[in-house]
Amino acid sequence: MKLLERHLDWGGKTPVAELKAVSADVMAGNIVVLKQVFPEAVMDRCKAMLLAWQAEHPESNPERLQVNAHWWRRDINPPSKTKHLFETFCFVFKDEEGALSEVSTVFEDMGAIWRALTGRTETMTMDAGGKALRPQAIHYPRGGGFFDWHVHELAPQGIGLILGLSKDGRDFESGGTRFRADGQELDSVKAHDIGDICLFRYDVDHSVGEVDGNYPLEWGGTGRWTMVLPLM
User: Fold this and answer.
1) Tens digit of pLDDT for each residue in 210-224?
2) Could you tell me which residues come within 8 angstroms of residue 31 by beta carbon, excluding any fewer than 6 positions away?
3) CATH number of the domain where residue 208 is located
4) Dihedral of the CA atoms 16, 152, 103, 67 (nearest 10)?
5) Residue 194's pLDDT is what?
6) What is the pLDDT of residues 112-145, one digit of tens each?
7) Among 39, 105, 120, 171, which is least packed, fewest CB within 10 Å?
8) What is the 3-state secondary structure (H, E, C) of the chain?
């Protein structure tokens, strides 16, 4: 397992052969960080939009696949097979998104990248088989946010995407996505900056290390924010 950095000219201009090479690297078990996919200013605006939307909507905890609306919740070591401490934001985007329009656009671009890498066709709209990409933002707060080791089935997702919305050294000082395979552990935190997308084979064991555990617990704009796009 290696950590590889790639600079792709996204926007439909990246050669197919280059995308296939990235996909092959990931499916071989390597971690690939696509550098500067989105500008830092766009990531900062997305995080501000998420915080503003959160302030206007109460916390809720519906069954994720049975709700047709946005929601968020805060998990502080809840009963779960995988220990964690974070806020999760789950979205079902429709035609007009108003205050979350730029967030929706970024998720659309993430979906296009995923489809280009995997050859799959699913979008954020549920298909005839009930499958859809499910936009999710996760906030690991300063003061101990984390996600313990866990693993997914490889199919049908194939490749997982983690977009960084936070900047190392500005928003947080420690705590990044870690991967392990064949007795080897790899921490992506120093390579995975704001606006970068970390790609990994979906059945590779991974976790998020404790974020700034030497600080008091602090919800808000600090800590580590990410956007992910699981197929469910």
Assistant:
1) 999 999 999 999 999
2) 1, 2, 3, 4, 179, 186, 188, 198, 199, 200, 204
3) 2.60.120.620
4) 130
5) 97
6) 999 999 999 999 998 888 899 999 999 999 999 9
7) 39
8) CCEEEECCCCCCCCCHHHHHHHHHHHHCCCEEEECCCCCHHHHHHHHHHHHHHHHHCCCCCCCHHHCCCCEEEEEECCCCCCCEEEEEEECCCCCCCHHHHHHHHHHHHHHHHHHHHHCCCCCCCCCCCCCCECCEEEEECECCEEEEEECCCCCCCCEEEEEECCCECCCECCCCEEEEECCEEEECCCCCCCCCEEEEECCCEEEEEEECCCCCCECCCCCEEEEECCEC
Asked if 189 contacts 225 with a C-beta cutoff of 8 angstroms, the reply is no
- Quick check: 97 pLDDT over 80? no
Residue 96 has pLDDT above 60, yes or no: no
Residue 44 phi/psi, 5° resolution?
A: -65, -40
Distances (CA, A) of 5 to 21, 53, 172, 214: 12, 33, 21, 30
Q: Cα separation of 116 and 219, whole Å?
A: 35
Domain count, the chain: 1
* CA gap 138, 94 in Å, rounded: 20
- Helix axis angle, 101-118 to 40-56, nearest 10°: 120
Number of C-beta neighbours around residue 144 at 10 A: 20
Q: Is 227 left (phi over 0), alpha (psi -120 to 50) or beta?
A: beta
